[in-house]
Specification:
The complex is a heterodimer.
Chain A lengths: L11 H4 L2 H16 L4 H19 L1 H21 L9 E5 L2 E5 H27 L2 H10 L4 H32 L1 H6 L2 H32 L20 H19 L3
Antiparallel strand pairs in A: 1-2
Chain B lengths: L1 H24 L2 E4 L2 E4 L1 H12 L1 H18 L6 H19 L9 H26 L3 H6 L1 H25 L9
Antiparallel strand pairs in B: 1-2
Classes of the chains: A mainly alpha, B mainly alpha.
Chain lengths: 257, 173
């Protein structure tokens, strides 16, 4: 089970301050919802894909696209038929199948979906999770909240491993051949003992985790120090200016009049 | 004393968040049209066992993290809101004073609320922010099925875990 979204690389996005990247991602998502022309929307999407391909590589770009392809196909197949009014594009006899407005709306929603996907994916592919958490703390995310996320990152592999071990031992007791013939509902019912065992293992670790938190001084009034900081990103101000400028320029250039 | 309680709260929420991520990402039951994931099972279990705030944070955060790790970061904010509210509402409905067993009618109401929250929440938010009305509407039956299975298995799991590990009741807050 992979809980790492970071893709190793050395492009300029990797050197960009994570705080500025978070702001850029949010502003781009907002831009995609503002009243901009379709050309502007696709120019933003193309820019995102280009920046992504240069930084994380074509393979990662392809993989991201592949993950949203079923949804895009679904949109392309159903969205155009949703809008009945406007200029007819495709019709069978007197029945209008697709209107110009329907096709434009499908294109807009599809473009927006690709844009949001790439903006979000690029942030997490080019920034280690520790830096994302530090950046969120800089944006005043409470310490407890970031601690919960960090601790759950530590516990995910542990719980996943225990679940795999428990389910394999249960399967060995049942025999593999039987499983293929069982219905979905039977399989769900038979999953219950495995889930119960995995949950009990996970829940038993809670008192120990709470105890270790107390022993490490959780809740003390003194501010905690951190081994890691965002000081290695040297061009914070420039990165913030770039993150702010690009969405504003795109909005001013492509806003619908 | 308050400090100790805070440490326990953080530990409970962190482990439960990890449980939701694992149930969403690892446990997948293949079906004819794709697969069922068990995030709603974990959420209902937490709501029935741990109370509203643990359910809200663990459900929202867990499903959002699972979306992030699976490469669907764009769905993470929607999952956070929908599943967080699902956990919160179910837990508020089944909340009991003392160790009184939850009446059957309350469980049924909680189940319906859970299914309605997931299907309508995803429909409304993805129609507005992601995919438009028709594509979002097509997801409703699938979400109903998944959350329905989640409620039934979640209830069974809550009862089984309480029998297998009685101290679980002392971890609720």
């Amino acid at each position: 089970m992979t809980t790492n979204t970071f893709v190793a690389g050395s492009g300029f996005l990797y050197r960009m301050d994570p705080r500025a990247k978070i702001m850029a991602m949010l502003l781009i998502c907002v831009l995609l919802f503002l009243a901009i022309t379709l050309e502007g929307l696709y120019a933003t999407v193309v820019l995102l894909i280009l920046v992504g391909s240069v930084n994380t590589g074509l393979r990662h770009t392809g993989r991201t696209f592949k993950s949203i392809l079923p949804m895009l196909l679904f949109m392309a197949l159903f969205m155009p038929f949703n809008v009945r009014s406007g200029q007819s594009l495709v019709s069978i006899g007197s029945f209008t199948l697709i209107t110009r407005e329907g096709a434009l709306q499908a294109a807009r929603l599809g473009g927006r979906f690709i844009g949001i996907t790439y903006a979000c994916t690029l942030l997490f592919a080019t920034t280690p999770m520790t830096d994302v958490m530090l950046a969120l703390r800089w944006y005043r995310l409470p310490y407890k909240a970031s601690l919960v996320v960090t601790l759950s990152f530590t516990y995910i592999p542990f719980i996943a491993d225990s679940f795999t071990q428990i389910s394999e031992s249960h399967r060995l007791r049942e025999g593999g051949e039987l499983e293929k013939r069982r219905s979905v509902f039977k399989r769900l019912r038979d999953l219950l003992p495995t889930l119960t065992s995995a949950l009990v293992v996970a829940l038993r670790s809670i008192p120990y985790l709470a105890m270790s938190l107390e022993q490490r001084g959780f809740g003390r009034s003194e501010k905690r120090t951190s081994y890691h900081s965002l000081d290695s990103y040297r061009h914070g101000f420039t990165d913030f200016v770039i993150s702010l400028t690009i969405p504003i320029v795109f909005w001013l250039t492509f806003r619908a009049r | 004393m308050e400090k100790n309680r805070n440490a326990l709260k953080v530990a409970v929420v962190a482990v439960l968040t990890a449980v939701v991520v694992v149930f969403t990402m690892i446990v997948r039951i293949p079906t004819a049209k794709g697969y069922l994931n068990l995030c709603d099972v974990a959420i209902c279990f937490i709501a029935f066992t741990f109370g509203p705030w643990s359910a809200f944070i663990a459900a929202g955060l867990g499903t959002a993290l699972a979306d992030l790790f699976s490469g669907y970061a764009q769905w993470a904010p929607i999952s956070f809101v929908v599943h967080g509210v699902e956990g919160l509402l179910v837990a508020l409905i089944v909340r009991q004073k003392g160790s009184v067993t939850i009446p059957f009618v309350t469980k049924v109401v909680a189940g319906f609320v859970c299914m309605a929250t997931v299907s309508l929440g995803y429909f409304a938010l993805s129609a507005i922010f992601i995919s438009g009305v028709s594509v979002a509407a097509a997801e409703i039956p699938w979400n109903l099925l998944q959350s329905g299975v989640g409620v039934v298995l979640g209830l069974a799991l809550a009862a089984a875990v309480k029998r297998a590990y009685p101290p679980v009741s002392s971890l609720a807050w």
